Amino acid sequence: MRYLTFALAKGRLAKKTLSILERIGITCEEMKDPNSRKLIFVNEELKLKFFLSKATDVPTYVEYGAADIGVVGKDTIMEEGRKLYEVIDLGLGKCRMCVAGPASAKDLLNHGELIRVATKYPNIAKDYFYNVKHQTVEIIKLNGSIELAPIVGLSEVIVDIVETGSTLRENGLEVLEEICPLSARMVVNQVSMKMEHERIQKLITDLKGVIG
Ligand SMILES: Nc1ncnc2c1ncn2[C@@H]1O[C@H](COP(=O)(O)OP(=O)(O)OP(=O)(O)O)[C@@H](O)[C@H]1O
Ligand SMILES: O=P(O)(O)OC[C@H]1O[C@H](OP(=O)(O)OP(=O)(O)O)[C@H](O)[C@@H]1O
């Protein structure tokens, strides 16, 4: 039996992903050592391998088949646009992709003005403004602390993740439009899905049994 390899997003989703896998009997004790610098972990008994990578790289590993299976946020799947199968919504890491800004920016969205949109997600923002709203905008790519952009005058609005809404509230901003709900998904390499169909299907069925 060959090894099945999992690419898991490090950061916010990692711990929750490991605990959902544990609930279906997939454990990788080694991975829990916070001091370890090791990158790849093996469960000999189950013939599984795991590695943690930057969330944005998970779809890349899965498309190329370096990992058979990945767990990553829907936002990253949409933004990366890789060829893979999205097989299950794990229901964790729930949040929303939103257009946000000061209340005063609402009118700019309703009247189709040429506005600047700061975001870590240029493809999602482009798709939303061009294909859904049919509004021409200038997209400005940032890499973090997106809420700063409208405060310091870099953009009129932002496209970003909202979970509790605290970051927006504490900075005098609000949700202006909701683009879509988000959560972590399991994704599968298209060839692996065919070659390892039975094992992957069992995994999906087991996961469906433990998620609410
Ligand atoms: N409040 C939140 N903020 C950001 N992401 C969240 C939040 N809640 C859930 N998520 C989900 O967690 C995923 C990973 O978030 P995390 O902040 O760990 O990674 P990242 O932002 O891609 O990493 P980095 O900070 O290295 O760029 C997101 O892609 C999203 O699907
Ligand atoms: O609605 P909330 O619960 O406040 O969560 C949303 C915030 O969390 C994320 O930022 P993150 O902490 O990942 O930092 P970053 O902005 O540097 O990416 C996201 O980009 C928002 O800023």
From TrEMBL:
Enzyme class: transferase
Pathway it works in: Amino-acid biosynthesis; L-histidine biosynthesis; L-histidine from 5-phospho-alpha-D-ribose 1-diphosphate: step 1/9
Residues covered by the ATP phosphoribosyltransferase catalytic domain: 54-209
Compartments where found: Cytoplasm
GO cellular component: cytoplasm
Superkingdom of this protein's organism: Bacteria
PROSITE patterns registered for this protein in UniProt: ATP_P_PHORIBOSYLTR
Record's catalysed reaction(s): 1-(5-phospho-beta-D-ribosyl)-ATP + diphosphate = 5-phospho-alpha-D-ribose 1-diphosphate + ATP
One of the GO biological process terms: L-histidine biosynthetic process
GO molecular function, one term: ATP binding
Chief location category: cytoplasm
Keyword list, A-Z: Amino-acid biosynthesis, ATP-binding, Cytoplasm, Glycosyltransferase, Histidine biosynthesis, Nucleotide-binding, Transferase
A family per Pfam: HisG
Alphabetical list of InterPro entries matching this protein: ATP_PRibTrfase_cat (IPR013820), ATP_PRibTrfase_CS (IPR018198), ATP_PRibTrfase_HisG (IPR001348), ATP_PRibTrfase_HisG_short (IPR024893)
Family: Belongs to the ATP phosphoribosyltransferase family. Short subfamily.
HAMAP family: HisG_Short
Protein task: Catalyzes the condensation of ATP and 5-phosphoribose 1-diphosphate to form N'-(5'-phosphoribosyl)-ATP (PR-ATP). Has a crucial role in the pathway because the rate of histidine biosynthesis seems to be controlled primarily by regulation of HisG enzymatic activity.
Domain notes per entry: Lacks the C-terminal regulatory region which is replaced by HisZ.
Subunit architecture: Heteromultimer composed of HisG and HisZ subunits.
Protein name, entry field: ATP phosphoribosyltransferase
Organismal lineage: Bacteria, Bacillati, Bacillota, Clostridia, Lachnospirales
